[in-house]
Task: structure prediction
Amino acid sequence: MIPTVREQPEQASPQVLTEERLTPRLRTFFWGLAIVLGALHVWAHRNDLNPDSVSYIEMAEAAMRTGWHALVNGYWSPLYPAFLSVGFRILHPSMYWEFTVVHLVNFAVYLGDLLCFEFFVKELLAARRKEITSQDDLRSVPEKVFWIWGYLLFIWSNQYWLKPEYVNPYIIVAGLIYIATALLLRIYRGQGDWMAFAGLGAALGFAYLARTALFPPSFLFLACAFFLFGMARRSYSPALARSALALAVFAMIAAPLVVSLSKEKHRMTFGDSGRMNYAMHVDGAPHMTHWQGLPTGTGIPAHPTRKISGDPPIYEFAQPVAGSYPAWYDPSYWYEGITAHFSLRGQMWVLFKSANMYFKMFSRSGALYVVFLALTLLVRKTGKWDWGDRRFRLVWLPPLGTLGMYALVLVKQRYVSEFVLVLVLWILSSVRISIAGEEVFKKRAIGATILALALAMTWSSALNLRDIIRNRPYDQEVVAEELREMGILPGTQVASIGSGLEAYWAHLAEVRIIAEIPEHGMSFLAVGPLRRREVLDKFRELGAKAVVTKTAAVAHSTEGWQQVGQTQYYVWRPAKLQ
Result:
């Protein structure tokens, strides 16, 4: 929800070129550009998926069948599959049009993000306008230029960081963080009325529902709102009342999920993803699936996937979790009992990897190098950086704190893109150029920064257009169709040699993977021919009517495998079922 409180007219500052503000024509142009390039990007990558995709889609379908309680999951957050469920209820897609509807939902959220981003930029410019004085000859960046930068960076970050074609909740989180940061800026400007604080609590509550990891940073946002308002009024009593309202709204939205998860887990919890990921990435627990209690110190599994064999490792997980790949439908069930503990060596390694990922984010396409190099050289000669007063810097503490939180566990570009983007805009808003250097700024810096971002976007769009023209067949759909042609019908239990984390074919074919040999089946190839035959028989004993692999070497190592159409997949079935 974007608050609709009307702002009081602001006095034009002599240092701001009011005629340079955003025009309807310019806004229409960039909206058109965002729509065209966003649609191109989503369509080019319409078949891309990650291991999380199938889980979110199947949660959405379960909510349609059995009700919204199916969205309560210790690992996956409920808001994104709720959005998908609404899309499915409205459009009623067939199984093979399902992924298209998912991307339509993503595209709609992407456009919503742009509205939220505009709200953020508007509040940022209003806050910087409030700070400008006429004590020197320094000017802020013309607002028209800043809007151009903002739109280009939004489109660029969605092409290189957030990627709206991904089936995950971060595209929803982005819009909510833009709103939350914009409301902090509004509070900073002294316009923190009751509606602004209520809106902040709502934005943070829904951000938690979209990504449970944002539960702790929400309190940092609320604390900063309290101090910003209190410092502005030189009294913390009114700030306390408004902050209590924000906290109450946040609690009203977040409490149902916290209560449901705590009841399901028989312990107080707001979500298990943070604890599990810390144990995986810092303490060395197996990543994503099949934790069996090792390494020592990570806890005692309450009900892990069942290890049937050690050489090669076979894991069975038919019951009691639902889904086409139960091991990843609710990882918190299989990882129940895991504990996180501090490891200096593990923590330092994770911090190193996190720093490397932040560096990679900055390095994507090289555009940000050009932007900041051009501005740094210009400011060094004809201006300065103005980071604002202590209160203004407080606005940026929650994004910085959230980046630090992720750095302790795991950083991925889509996790942190919106936090990095608001900080980049803060840095750009801090540029001050002398009147004498204004012409140089307009001729060189503006052109260089806009050109760098435009070229990066053009290159990405050209690659997307190439992929659309090629129109390669989608293996996962072909595999699902071929499996049905082979008589492997919906509801059939199958096994996999190789991880089932990206087995969208199982979802499309409506079959269930109940057992697997993970890691591409290399351990299967390491044993002798007799043992390989015993492994296939063991899968049959576990209830699998077929075994699927994407590793050609596995299929060529044992008789009885059949290639699935012209894809890279192979299927093995007992002789009597072929």
